[in-house]
Amino acid sequence: MKKLMHWTVIAAAAMAATGAQADDAYPSKPITIIVPFTAGGPTDRVARDLAESLRKPLGAKTTIVIDNAAGAGSSIGIAKAARAQPDGYTLLINHIGMATVPNMYRKLSFDVLKDFEYLGIINDVPMTLVGKPALAANNYKELAEWISANKSKVNMANAGIGSASHLCGLLFQSTIKTEMTTVPYKGAAPAIADLMGNQVDLLCDQTTNTTSQIEGKKVKAYAVTTKQRLSTPSLKSLPTLDEAGLKGFEVTIWHGMYAPKGTPPAVLKKINDALKVALKDPEFIKKSEQLSAVVANDKRVDPAGHKAFVEAEINKWGPIIKAAGAYAD
Ligand code: ASP
Fold first, then answer.
1. Residue 48: pLDDT band by 50, 70, 90 thresholds?
2. Quick one: which atom of ligand 1 is closest to the CA of 208?
């Protein structure tokens, strides 16, 4: 028995040493970042741009693979990340869905606060209210008149229950006291494709997805969801919804990075350090600025600040979502 215990202790010590070596060598194989929305949409865009800048501090040879595990407003991808091996080789980038999904779904297989390690907030992104090219309305006032004449006949697309576009659409409909027909997609990329093709009427989505479509006149732009107008040249003529008469209306989306609970602290530190370097990369900052996204540069880039922020966002949106009565099973 004594001998057995002795061997067990040696084996455990050897395993710990191998683990520490593995942590030192991190990353020594490809890293997968789960994006819980479709390719070509705003969350995917942020993840792919960031991955480029993460490769510099993690080592130029590091391969980062994006896994678009889309559906159910990001809850499918969150669940996949929560179940992944906690070794630093599977990470998650998600947006405000980390705060809306827990408030909207009655049953979830994960707990966003308990099942993840927090690595840092990436950016804050405004949203825009855009319409199909065939809409006759040329400004927000004309759009409001058209909506009140058509009410539930108006189709508003979103990227699934719990998505940012769902949250924005929900808030918009409850503020103007008009219930429209909502059309859920697995991400904003197919939603905006259908909008451009005149299959749906309206969408509220991040500037990271809508700016180039607005510039190319492929959609009609009516307003922004921030308190202040945006300074991006192609968007600065757009009124804020607050200024257009929806007093107090404000939605800003943020993205953050996560690892499954139990990822070794040394690996988490490496990823957080790399994230901090990536967020200061002039290339990442430039790409973000062109799309009106503001790269995070505050205490939310630290794990504790990130987690406290997400917790505050869950508490902030909970009563608003409850009042709008948006739930899913
Ligand atoms: N922007 C989308 C949303 O509405 C998600 C995406 O496709 O990135 O939440």
1. very high
2. 1
